[in-house]
Amino acid sequence: MDAYIIIAYIIIILLTGLSLLIHEIGHLAAAKFFDIKVKLFSIGICPSLASYNYKDIKVKICAFPVMFYVTLNYDTNSYFNIPLYKRVLFSIFGSLANLLFLIFIYLFCIAINKTFLVSEFYKIYTLMYNINYIPGILYLINGFAKLIYQNLYSCISFLLIINIIITAVNLLPIIEHDGGKIIFNILNQKKPNILKYYVAFSKILKFSIGSLVIYFTIMDSWRLFIKFFRNTL
Known about the structure:
By secondary structure, the protein is an alpha+beta fold.
C-alpha cells in the first residue's frame, strides 16, 4: 500500500477525532455556563496513560485519542434535580458546537473560493454515483482516503461530512445519544407514564440501526477484500 494513502487514512482518523473533540467541548461549555458539575473528561479510550485534575474535573489521557467523552458528577437522583432546561441544553450544546464548526468551515471556504465546495461535493457525488449498492462506513472511509490522497483540500469536505454525520447520529432518539437524552429527560418530567414505551422504542431503534451498520460493514469488508485480492493477482 502506498505510504501516502496510509497518511490519508491517518488524516481521516485525526479529523474525526477533532470533530468529536469539538462536540465534547460543546458539552463542557454548557456545563460551565449552566453550572453543571463535570466529573471526568476523557481524551481517547482505554487504556489510560495519564490523568490530572483541572479544578474539579479529572482529565484522563488514553492510548487511543480518537474518542472523547464527558462524565457528569451526579448520581441518578441528584442528576434529575438539575433543572430540566439545563439538562436539555447540556445535551444540545454538543451538536450545536458541531453546527457552529460547520458554519465556520463553510464561511472559510466561501471566503477563499466560492466554487471550492461545489467542486468538492461534485467529487463526493461522483464517488457515490459510481456504485450500484448502498455503501457502508468502510466504503466511505476508503473513498475519502482516495480523495484526500489525490487532493489534500478534500480534508475540508470530509470535515463537513463528518460533522454532519456526528450531529445527525447524536440527535437520534436513542437513549444513549444526545437526542434520546433530551426526549428521556422531557418525558421523565412531563409524561412519565409513557416513558417505558419510549425506552422500548429506543432499544428497538438502536438494535435496528446497529444491525444495519454491522451488515453494511461486513459487506464493505467483503467487497474491499475481493477488490484487493483481484488487484494482487
